[in-house]
Amino acid sequence: MTWLQQNLKIALAAIALAAVALVFIISGESGPEAEVYAVLDEICDGISYDSPKPKLSQLTSAKELSGHFVESPYLVAWPGQAAVTNRDAVTGLFVYLFSYATEAKISMSSRQATIDGDRAIVTATITGKATVGGSSERHSGRYRIALEKVDGDWLITTSEPSN
Coil, strand, or helix at residue 134? Predict the structure, then answer.
C-alpha cells in the first residue's frame, strides 16, 4: 500500500483545507471588509441600467439607494460640484442620474479599505459610462468614501474626489 492509500482521510482533509484557504486568498474579502464592499457594489449595481426606468421605478430605486447614506452625508459626485448634504438631496441626485441617461454603467476598481471598529475608509477608482442623447459620456476618478456602522448597517457618511 502506498502512503496515499493509508492516509486518504488526511490527504482529503489537507486538500479541502487548502481549497478553503485559496478561496479566502483569492477573494481577499471577509468580515467587515466584505460587508463594506457589498454596500458599495450594491450602489454601483443600483445606479447601472441598460434602458430607462419608468419614473416611479426611478424614485423607488433612488430612495432605496439613498438608504445607504446617513441622514446628513457629505457627498461630492464630481470634482467642482457643490456637496449634497442630506438624504433627500441624495435621492434627488439619483433620480437626476436615472433620468439623465438612456443607459448607465458604474464600476469601482482598485479599492482599498481601512476599517477601524465601526468606521471604514475606502479609496477606489470609480468609473461611470452613460449614453446621453445618443452620445457616450465617461467619467473616471479616484474617490475617498467614509462609512460608519449604524444599527448593524454600513452607511456612507462622506464621498468625495481624492487627490
Answer: coil
